[in-house]
Design a protein that fits this description.
single chain; binds nicotinamide-adenine-dinucleotide; 475 residues; 6-stranded mixed beta sheet; alpha/beta
């Protein structure tokens, strides 16, 4: 079933598609496939909702509705977690964490709704000049498959907090938790017309939404090439577009750092979510004097990770999302070794896993040069490239020598170096002596080909509002 104008219903065409369980390769669900008539119905409803009460509901009341969404997610937390674990192949512990993070996102924007302030500007004419923040209009929220519920929440919560109607387009591989979230939104009191969820093929639904003049705002997370395509399809309508795109982030480890800790903690900063993470530190830059010891420790810690079935509580890495995604990762491992890198560990199908599932043991490539394709292109799988560097200047040059600029880490005990390198790195998010990139309260997004705009934090609200300047003459 789709969700159109707050109501679950079949696709107008009656078509459905199969959603697979990556751990077994078997069919998990049959889902209604949205088509042109469903896009039309969802956008008509959202247009009605924008003319209706939701944008005019006091922000404090909208915040209360979002607080009920957070409670609604928590009330069904285990249902969300098991569904996400099975559909996206996530270890159940990770899925539980993501469900709680989704609830926290709604909680944060529940509080942000009535704190997104305008301004009073002291102009030279006699009167009063005020800056108002107003909802932008119908928002198309397009989500990838790697963090399905969480990224849907990052977009849905600020869009609704600002008073907009939404149409969610989940990834066709992972539409299930977005549909469940739609039910929670309606139960919490978001008006029906303001919420639709349209699963189905990216190209047709994506183009149908992004090229439609009823859509005022597009928030997209996915591949850089798809983001560039959306900029083109939406350009005639001058839609507001924010993009969270790919990454090839660096973790830069200096010899003066607590590099043992860096080695241990960076394992999951690359291989968490089986490497299918836009923030994955898939390029690990290590100072030459500690390089060999670092590689040995990192590889041993990688090989010690438990790859297994998502619902097994001991699993640390689940399967990849699809057979195709695993094939791509294997192709890159082959490209790396052919270019002269050494495969230190991983890269095979782990023993004991379901042979029909899309499992791959995490792979470490050492002796990588930043010009190799494994270092330049986003693999989006469990493949880490370790690259040696001589000094601070070379570390900065290598880290910045990428079309991307999403995330990254810097490991040093030298405060001055920490400040210099942090300022020099061209990336939207950076952690010093830490690998954490995402916090609900802080802005998240990329430089260069990693995106446009920011999600989370107070800045997210800017992207879902227009600025209106009003001058009241006192003459
Ligand atoms: P994708 O670009 O293939 O798909 C993302 C979404 O866009 C899906 O819902 C898909 O159906 C839809 N889509 C496909 N074609 C479209 C079109 N023509 N118009 C509109 N929508 C279309 O990406 P993916 O494979 O689902 O996700 C992986 C990518 O997402 C990686 O590149 C990763 O780095 C990126 N990502 C970025 C962030 C971030 O915050 N920067 C977070 C997660 C994932």
């Amino acid at each position: 079933m789709l969700l159109i104008a707050g109501t679950r219903r079949p696709a107008a065409s009656g078509r459905t598609f199969e959603v697979l369980e990556p751990a077994t390769g078997s069919v998990l669900a049959e889902v209604a496939e949205a088509g042109a008539a469903d896009i039309d119905a969802a956008l008509d409803a959202a247009t009605r909702a924008f003319a209706g009460p939701w944008p005019r509901t006091p922000a404090t009341e909208r915040g209360r509705v979002l607080a009920r969404v957070a409670a609604g997610i928590r009330a069904r937390a285990e249902e969300f977690a098991v569904l996400e674990a099975r559909n996206a192949g996530k270890p159940i512990g990770d899925a539980r964490w993501e469900v709680e993070a989704a609830a926290s996102t709604f909680e944060y924007f529940a509080g942000a709704a009535n704190k997104h302030l305008g301004a009073v500007i002291p102009v030279s004419e006699p009167g009063l000049d005020v800056v108002l923040r107003e909802p932008v209009g119908v928002c198309a929220l397009i989500v990838p498959w790697n963090f399905p519920l969480l990224i849907t929440s990052w977009k849905t919560a600020p869009a609704l907090a600002a008073g907009n109607p939404i149409v969610i387009k989940p990834a066709s591989l992972t539409p299930l938790t977005a549909l469940l979230l739609g039910e929670v939104l309606i139960d919490a009191g978001v008006p029906g017309d303001a919420v639709s969820v349209l699963p189905g093929p990216g190209r047709s639904i994506g183009d149908g939404l992004t090229g439609d003049p009823r859509v005022a705002k597009i928030s997209f997370t996915g591949e850089t090439a798809t983001g560039a395509h959306i900029l083109r399809t939406s350009s005639d309508n001058i839609a507001r577009v924010s993009l969270e795109l790919g990454g090839k982030s660096a973790s830069v480890v200096f010899a003066d750092a607590d590099w043992e800790r860096a080695a241990d903690e960076t394992v999951m900063a690359v291989f968490g979510n089986t490497g299918q993470d836009c923030c994955a530190r898939s390029r690990i830059l290590v100072q030459a004097s500690i390089h060999d010891e670092f590689v040995a420790r990192f590889a041993a810690a990688t090989a010690a990770r438990t790859v297994g079935a998502p619902l097994d509580e001991t699993t640390e890495l689940g399967p990849m999302i699809s057979a195709r995604q695993r094939e791509i990762a294997l192709e890159y491992i082959g490209l790396g070794t052919a270019a002269g890198a050494e495969l230190v560990t991983g890269g095979g199908v782990p023993a004991g896993c379901d042979p029909h599932g899309f499992f791959l043991s995490p792979a470490v490539l050492a002796g990588v040069d930043n010009s190799m394709r494994v270092a330049r292109e986003e693999i989006f799988g469990p493949v880490a490239s370790i690259i040696p560097f001589r000094d601070e200047g070379e570390a900065i040059d290598i880290a910045n020598d990428t079309p991307y600029g999403l995330s990254g880490s810097l490991w040093t005990r030298d405060l001055g170096r920490g400040i210099r390198v942090a300022r020099a790195l061209r990336t939207g998010v950076l952690s010093v002596n830490s690998n954490k990139s995402v916090r609900t309260e802080t802005p998240f997004g990329g430089y260069k080909h990693s995106g446009l705009g920011r999600e989370l934090g107070p800045q997210a609200m800017d992207h879902y509002t227009e600025i209106k300047n009003v001058f009241f003459s006192s003459e």
